[in-house]
Input
Amino acid sequence: MPSKQDVHIDKILTNMSVKYVQDASAYIAGKVFPMVPVSKQSGKFFKYAKEDWFRDDASKRAMGTESVGGDYEIEQDFYYAERYAFHKNVYDEERANSDDPLSPDADATAFVTDKLLLNKENNWAREFFVSGKWGTDVDGAESSGAGQAAYWDDYDASDPIKDISDYSTVIAEVTGKQPNTLVIGRRVYNALKNHPDILDRIIYSQKGVVTADLIAELFDVERILVANAIQNVANKGQEAQMQYILGNNALLCYTAGSPGLRTASAGYTFTWTGLMGSAAWGGRINRIPNPLLGIGTERIEAEVCYDMKIVAPDMGVFFNNIVQGV
Output
């Protein structure tokens, strides 16, 4: 086994991995919540109790008397940036026999980075794209009612424009923040861009073509994030079973453009940049000699450290199975 001294944190491959992350448009897990770079793997942060800030406590003040005063509560919460890793061995024979445009080290870097992006997307989906996590849950149904909305791909019964407007008001009324982000699975996007109500509203737009940006403008949100990432859920050696990672759901929420003091957000992603050689997204690429598998063999290992956390659940509305799909 190589010692710690043998492990080389490869800056060039790390930079290549960072570029790959930035270009991976299919994944949304790193885009929903703002990233908070942290120097320590674990730590605490503070949350103000919103009730104290939105209560009307001020009153008239008579001459010679004290003003009415008050205070606000502060809660503590904690993060812990878990470490995730994946590797691929690169053999000396591969380098010697590779022809352009193949590049074993670059290909291995892209491969291990994509594995971590795929894993992060799944982690985000399991933690945040499910019922029971947010302030309000809405189930797709045959007709709209209490806690239900007609399936958005049932064009006769549904009214997604009204649904988003109504539940945006729900968030704004309890938080003072107008939701600015809608995260949707690919099938949900397909249903929306073909919905007659939406087509009627934007058919005469300048572009004349339904896009996520136009739907966002119609829904009065700043952005719509369409989850296009897919995965193979079959085991190695079995016939591939490809499917979208994020299902037939939607999440309406408010997220801050960037982290800051006294800055509200539905969630934050804490990335541990204090680990030697880590980039802003909390990742690094290690090059590890592995001569037991042959002279010149090296292990290209990607490692990332993060903790994705819901900070304000009342800033989110989750639409569960909002389309029936196929």
